[in-house]
Amino acid sequence: MGRPGASYDRIGGVQRGYGGPGPRAGAFRTRPRSLLTRVTSRDSFLRHLDWALIAAVLALSILGVLLVWSATEPSLAASGASTRTYLDKQAIYVVFGLVLMIGVSLVDYRQLRVYAPVIYGLAVVGLLVVLTPLGSSVNGAKGWIDLPAGFQIEPSEYAKIAIILMTAMLFSELREGASGPDAERRGPRLRDVGIVIACGLPLVALVIIEPALGISMVLAVELAGLILLSGIRLRWVISLAVAAAAAVTAVLSLHLLKGYQLTRLTSFLHPSSNAAGAGYNEIQAKIAIGSGGMFGEGLFHGQSVSGSYVPAQSTDFIFTVAGQELGFVGAVVIVALLGVVVVRALRIATRADDQFGMLVAAGIAIWFLFQSFVNIGMTVGIMPITGLPLPFISYGGSAIFADMIAIGILLSVHRKHPVFE
Amino acid sequence: MISASRRRMVVLYVVMASLLITLGGRLWYIQVMNGASYVKLASANQTRNIVVPAVRGQILDDVGQAMVTNRTALVVSVDMMTLSQRPDGGVSVLRRLASLLDTPYPLLQKKVRLCSPTVTQPCWAGSPYQPIPVDQSVSAQVALQIMEEQSQFPGVTAQTQGVVDYPSPGGADPAQVLGYLQPATTQELKADHLPSAVGYSTADLVGQSGLEEQYNTALTGKTGTNTVSVNAAGDVTGTVGGTPAQSGDDLVTSINSTIQADAQQALTTAISKARASGNDANQGAAVVMTTTGRVVAMASYPDYDPSVWTNGISQSQFNALFGAQDGAPAINYATQGQYAPGSTWKVTSTAAAVADGYPLDGSYDCPASVNIGGHNYINDGEPNLGAMSFSEALIQSCDTVYYNLGYEMWQRDNPGANVVTSPKAPVQKMQQMALHWGFGQPTGVDLPDESTGTVPTREWLYYYWKDNAYTGQDWCKYGKADGSYVQQIEYQDCQDGNVWEPGQAAIAAIGQGYDLVTPLQLTNAYVALADGGTLYQPRIGEALVSPTGKQVQQINPPVAGHLPVSPNTLAYIRNALAGVVTQGTAAGAFSGFPLNQVCVAGKTGTAEVMGKVATSVFASFAPCGNPQYVVVVMIPDSGYGADASAPAVRQIWDGIYGLEGHKAAVPGGRVPASLPQIASTGQITAPKGYSG
């Protein structure tokens, strides 16, 4: 950065000064700071925001609102309802989500470390409540709590945040409590990892019970990613991987997965063998995306959309609308914007000034990366079909709110980054 | 930061980059490299081709009144064989179907049960193996829903089917002439199978007999397709394109409904009378033709209501149509019945004798009996009537005159070939003449499955013996020299069935023995006699007219040949036949008939059939001097020609010309010379001077 005086000159402007050849050397004038100067000053809140991240999130949210509108317009028109019903709701979710994002970003993320056990506790309670008669099901998954005035809350979405905060908190607390030579530079001990897993597994298990297979996979991947990033020794990593593989084998061989879950998980390997059943979604999704070509059929002009060939097209399969109506160009733009979000999150993690901030930001990066890859991957036939929304784009209040809160946490971690490093 | 964490952070960047590149690459592969094929899949996904059946053409009478009309409707059928195999016996499927069709479930349930003596309508009278139609006209939407959601509606089909109506103008019901429609057989379907289409299948109706079969191609028209866009649920969201169906052409026939109804009535009355007097008469035919080769009426007894064919025919109905105990009403006895012509045959025998050199104005003995080949042949119990002319022989129908002619010609006609050992043996002169008159071969009328009749040429005899001596009827096995009458004949036939014997030659000259004709053949031969010698291929169809009123094809009776008989001889014979009605064998039957208004000529025939009452035949034409029509009635098992058939013929003449209290069927006794006009709107106008 240049001298402070130079910046005053640039901002104040020479023409507004004395008309002379410029301030003399050593001259020092105080001027009342305008709002503009204040918000752009070095210590301003706004200057500590990650604007690239915010721009990517805003672009994704606006695309999401448009795609939700396009996806729901034909069926709403056919049923005679207002074609703007879902457009309006999604726009409200996004606006409310942005408010949440700003609110969370203003909180010192170290406060979150203190409240992590509370947030974790709330998530556990929420996930338990959905299993009681208070919970309501959508598409076979009992994952929602009905609130007054027709609102619903989906605790599993918030569990994605809770597991990150809890895990990051545990790793940093346990490490600070560690003693001995070089304790700061060593990774966590195996006992620490055991505690982390013991705290994380209940959340995963409760989501599996719902059953929301996709979200439980997100939680498990977040947990595993954070364990890896915690600095755990490589040989333990390998041991854990073997244990995980054994667990998966056990799940399969002991038939712990419901039949529909196994069918959905494997049908992507051979979709045409069951075109009318489990393979149907995937074939129709691929047809919709493939027929978009390079530039797409145009927003609101997708054939598969108007024929409602792809199920859940405003939620889990919204990427098919993008693929068909916006083509390869639009689809790649969405992938790139999601990439920007993940890159910025990883950058924030790298530059975080403590272990907790790093793990939280990295956990969020893993979450968005994994969820985006699985969601888009299932629409193009390279991942099994699981019920996961596309971050910032799929229709749904809880998902948008959780996404936005995560961005707020990222911004908070970013803000606390030391200016001079 | 822990160094391990830092390193693994780098790994995370790499993982992220590889995942995003994977997505981008996959999108490039699907959208850009294979986009075109997915576009094709998408449009196949989203459109359905529906076969638009062409409306079948109508069959009209000579003034344009419809005898058969057609429309198509989407019919929903339930295959109970499929439903009964479901765990709940198909109850859930039927309940869903009931709500879709907006029918109360109990009613639907009743419609699909099988009729029995204790179960009455609504119920299904047809075969349990056939799909049961439960709704005769559903919307295209409902039909598509059923076809698209086969998992919801197993065993239920919705298909376009022709719905046929028979208005029966003036009471005319030429059921056997019109024929019937039945679902296409699998083989017929293969010819123009449309695999991807909804609603095209074995339910499509094809003409299976009569005019419907003969003119099936023209009547069917061309099916079209309708390409509609559908959504994932199979609901139609719009029409994309397609080709319109072309309706079939209308067939205008020369059948006059009034004369047809008269002929049916006269035939029925005659058979009822014959049965009332104790005879077994249970079939017969009446044919009316113009002397230009057109069929004006063709009645076959027993008749039936052709609407029995629509919506599936039950086994008992099918048995009734084809079973012998009900007289097999599905058979057109006018073209498929084969009867001995009796003395109506003597016109050809006269012509053959004259052609063989017997003087037309000669004198021929008519004894009470003649002895030929050791057998005595009598003249129907008449005393010796002395010498007479051919004219007298025809008027009195003297059999012994013709026995002698047949025997004498037999003696001179290639006697060395009479033991027939080769199909190439020369044809006898007497039989050659019959062939020239159109007997022994199909007339070529525009109806399918016509019988040939029999003229016992040496070639025919060769094959008859060859086919039955040791195979077929197997005379040599069943025949007994001392058995029953039939067994004795079989024994004899086994010995010498290939020998053209003098006795056969004698009785063949009076239209008995091996001689067999169809009523239409006899009518057509008398047309040739009446019109001065031109033999036609009879035609029922007059024209094919497109739905827009354009005449597609004019149908004229082709000339099949000319009788090798001089006009003088034909005129002589016609003159003699006029005498039959005034003073001969039919004088009684026509007593009181206003011959001064319309001069009718004709010939009776009484063909004795072994073990049965004689076949009654009357063949006639009118007016005598300038014949316009030929009317023939043949009724087996009913007695003398003058008793059963002649009165029926008289009744038909009454109808045509409006005599004896009847209303004239056609003004001035003339059938329309021009065709009814069909406007592009489908409006049909009768020819001028006629009412439709």
Walkthrough of the structure:
The complex is a heterodimer of chains A (421) and B (692). Chain A is mainly α and 421 residues long. Chain A has one domain (44-415). Chain A contains 15 helices and three strands. A three-stranded antiparallel β-sheet of chain A has the order 1-2-3, with helices on one face. In chain A, helix 6 (155-176) runs parallel beside helix 15 (397-415), helix 11 crosses helix 13 (318-351) and helix 13 (318-351) packs antiparallel against helix 14 (355-379). The radius of gyration of chain A is 24 Å and the shape is globular. Chain A starts with a helix and ends in a 6-residue tail after the last helix. Mean pLDDT of chain A is 81; it is low at 1-19. With 692 residues, chain B is of the alpha+beta class. Chain B folds into three domains: 54-253, Penicillin-binding protein 2a (Domain 2); 257-321 and 328-338 and 522-677, 3-Layer(aba) Sandwich (Beta-lactamase); 342-519, 3-Layer(aba) Sandwich (Beta-lactamase). Chain B is 35% helix and 19% strand. In chain B, strands 2, 3, 4, 5, 10, 18 and 19 form a seven-stranded mixed β-sheet that branches. A five-stranded antiparallel β-sheet of chain B has the order 12-11-23-22-21, sandwiched between helices. Chain B has a three-stranded antiparallel β-sheet with strand order 1-8-9. In chain B, helix 15 packs parallel to helix 23 (567-583) and helix 16 packs across helix 21. The longest helix of chain B has 31 residues, at 3-33. The N and C termini of chain B lie far apart (105 Å). Chains A and B meet through helix 8, helix 11, helix 12, helix 13 and helix 14 of A and helix 1 and helix 2 of B.
